[in-house]
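quick one before i forget lol
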Amino acid sequence: MDTYAIPRPPADRPLLGRTVLLVEDSLTACEAMRLLGVRSGARMRRAGDLAQAERHLRVWRPSVAIVDIGLPDGSGAALIARLARAEPRIEVVVGTSGDPGAMEAAMEAGADGFMAKPVNSLAVFQEGILAHLPPEAQPPGPRALPLDEVGPDPAALADDLAHAADLLGGPDEGTIPIAYLSQFLASVARENGDSALEGAAATLAAGDPLPERLARLAGIVQDRIAAA
């Protein structure tokens, strides 16, 4: 998309005219960023994994791509690297993750910036994109940073927990994607301020025998589903 073809956006909707592809598997994180994008004036599309993102990109070129590093079918860093090298290039490519250590992978792949999840602040979301747009694409004049924040969506959380329960209910331990499940649930827990779930998810890859860790995590997930 050519920057000069988009009029300067107003200060209260600084992403007006931008289209954003959000590649994110967590519906909790996705719903928060969708609301932030809409409030900023952007048009949003979501892909839940790399395969869906590729299908979108075959027929549509967004202005901005926000790519989660941990996805169910691979690393978002690979998609970031491809988008960063593409010609013509998407205006802004941003990595995101609930794991602060993923920032290095995103930036090495060619991302313009990185947003650490949870992303629930309108100011953080807007500045994470605006900082990488050219001056002519910025709102004119001084702009006060918005103080708005969004909270976790209960329906999105319920869907994320159901997804985790499905993964935990695999026919045997060998079919459970331990590394992916650990980072997915840890990210969902951070979005919702759930330290117990985050702790159980973070220790899934090490510690007690695997059956005990899986049983502990499955119990916490079922408790959260019942509460939701």
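fyi The beta strands are 19-23, 43-47, 64-68, 70-71, 74-75, 92-97, 113-116.
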